[in-house]
Amino acid sequence: MKLQPTKIILINSANCQYAEFDLSDSLHLVALNNRGKTSIINTLQFLYIDSFKEINFGYTLDETWKHYFPAVGSYILFELNTLTGKKVFGLSATGFGSQPEKFLLDGEYDSNDFIDNTDGKLTPKKPDFLFPLFSTKLLGRQLESKHHRALLRPFSQKQNPSGLGLIGDTRDYRLFKRLFRQLLQLKGISIKDLKAQIEQVNHSVMEKEQRINVQREFSEPYEKVRKEQDALRRLQDNQLTIENLIERTEQLKKRQGKLVSYHLKANKLFAEEDQLLNEKLETCQDQQTRAKDRLPEITLAKQDKQSTISREDQRLGVINNDITRYEALTRECNTIVVELEKQKAANLEQELDGLQEKLFNVRNNDLSALENSLAFKQEKLSKTQLQLNNLSSTLYVQLKSVLSDSELSTLYKLSNVELWSLLSDKFEVEDATALKAFLSQQLVVSDGDKFKLPGLSVDLSSVSALGLQQLGNPEFLQKQVDKLTTESNELREKINSIREQASLQKRVDEIKVSLAAINAQLKKHADWQAAKVDYQKWIEQSEQIMAAIVQHKHEMGEFDEKAYEIRQKVKQFAENIKTTRQQIEVLTGQKRWIESHSPDSDWIETEVIYDTLSFEALYDEYRKQFEALGEDRSAIAQNLEQLRSRFIHLAGLTNTDAIGFLSNQLEAIPEQEKSINDEWKRIFTSFASHCRGIIDSVDAIDSYLNNLNQLLSSQTISNLQSIKIVIGKNEWYQRVQKIKEWKENDLPLFGGLDESSIDDLMGSIKPLLDKVNITIADLYDLVLIVVDTHGKEKRYQSLDLESNGTSITVKTIIFISMLNQAISGKKKIGETIRLPFYVDEIDSLDDANAQNIHDIAVKLGLIPIFASPKGSGICKRLYQLENNSVGKLMIHKKTRESDKLVLVRPTFERVESE
Asked: Do residues 835 and 862 touch, judged by C-beta distance below 8 A?
């Protein structure tokens, strides 16, 4: 049994409603261009490559998911022959444009598991309904990359219990994935790709890093030993300075010994002198305390006087305030004339009463009624005035000249104001004589209130006898005009008062304020008159208090003089105390300085005579020695600073350690000369060794190509006698080879290397230094040597030969060889493992080459998969891809045993998508 995929099944995926391809043997996909042949075969990446990020379909992942998993109910399935029997590895859609889910089923593929057949209508099942049905079959779901990778490796009960063994126990799965992707894309493989893959295949038998970093392997150690040699020369150049430094260091140690001796004496001398100064300090402090004790008594007496002065000041302040107020009041009241102010107040009160009366009178009147009444009065006044103005034309005037008074009186009784007013414009005296005769005959005075007219009797007892007199009497009309004018003015004043009520009220308030101010002035004047007697008393009291205050201040001055004398004594005592304390402080400071500049514990005492020294003299001598010690240190540090700039190894060392280091370096000069000589040999020997290693790696590739060429020579390729791949060793190989052949006797020795030797040596290395990094790929070129049937040899720098079939055959053999080496476990391709192998546009090759590629692929353990617009009889199975009525691919199949194309499965009548 071969470990291999036996079927590819697509359900609602890659533009197929349903497609099933048998991989148990070679197959041929026939379809027009751009129908999806390559898309179908590329699904093998889902099986053999564990990470979605590493698959390469030529599109983004989002576009890939939309093409292969357009709806929930889209599946890509692989039926597998495994170490543990038949299995189904699949991927199902989880949503439009989303990453699919990987799963594994036990047993053979059964279409009924994934497709629902209801009354002949075929529909893909959705995962939510599908997976619960696989309770016994489902071996794993939502598989991650690590689980997927484990499935591809061999079964192991402990280490890999889920292994299916599809790629064997490969040691480099990442290399396998790269090679497998290229096996699916053989047409695009270049000589550069082949070179990179050959190096990867041989990685385990080549130099570990497969490159020489010339800077790191040679230049850096070369510079290091040159620096060591320069350091040794610097050491020799500065030998005299270092020896002088060591001598001065010995002198420094002697000074340090004297400091130790002085430091031991310092404590005793300090204790004696410190005791004397402290006794002097106590005496001064006692005298100062007794003097200070007198100050509180004087201070209390002064405070009493101060309190007395404060009280008198307060009394004086109160009296002075009263005096000031009275004098200010006097200045104000001298300008006040009481009679005038009272007259102003009376006038204002009179005006206030008038205004308040006006406000009272108008407060309850209706402005609208008054305005209507005023309009009526004015209208009546106008009429009356008009009558008065037209007096000469009235009926009264006309009748008065023709009638007697008795006749007029009688006529008046028959008249009425309203009646005659209506008829006043209608009467006109045309014949006074006739009127008078008529009135004489008709107006006969009988009983006074009753009159008889022809055919009419009039009773005038209840009628006002105003009549013509009101219509024409000038005196009456003038009285009426005067009366109406007066009444109109009164009404107008009332209306204006109502309208000006706010201004009247404002004036009332102003008058009240003025009255209040006048009354305040009058009260102030009265108070001023009443306070004249108190003013004289306040003057006398002020003078008495001021005299008392002067006396109290004089007494306080005497207290101040006494206190000043005592403070001067206290100050003198304080100066004495300060001086003594300063002496103590100086003494303590000198001791503190000595303690802060104490000798180090490792200094050795030197005996000196100091019995006659005071502490100050001891301090001076100690400081003098210490400063001299500082000068010595400074000189040593200066010399060391110069040496540190010349010797990098002194960085981080103390001065003592640095001097010791330099001393040791002087002693080790002979040994360093020998060490540098040995390092020279090691550098060149090591670099030559690296060059041998990378040359050996190229030789390993050469050896690998020999094996590959043997495999190529065992294959029959039409139109060719032979084909092989050889290494072309270029100039870089020659340069590295020259360094590789160095021998120890050829290497320079320290002290014996002249300029000509250096130039010759660096002449070989300089080109490598300029390039910086030398890789295996830099040292050789791959050349394809082809010998045709006529024995003519051609060399190619690429894998694209004149014959497309020959190119594909060569690429196939090469990559199968590399895949075998990549898997390189117990089982190899062709023994128990079979891998799919894809060739597109196979009809571009002649039949002989196509058949040859098929046979070689089968022999090497591949499953040939051809694709082209036209079919052939080379492969065991042929699948024809055609579009159906809904624009999806229908798959027809035929085998060598049958020449008929048979539809793999009817087209779905409906495909649900989300």
From this structure: yes
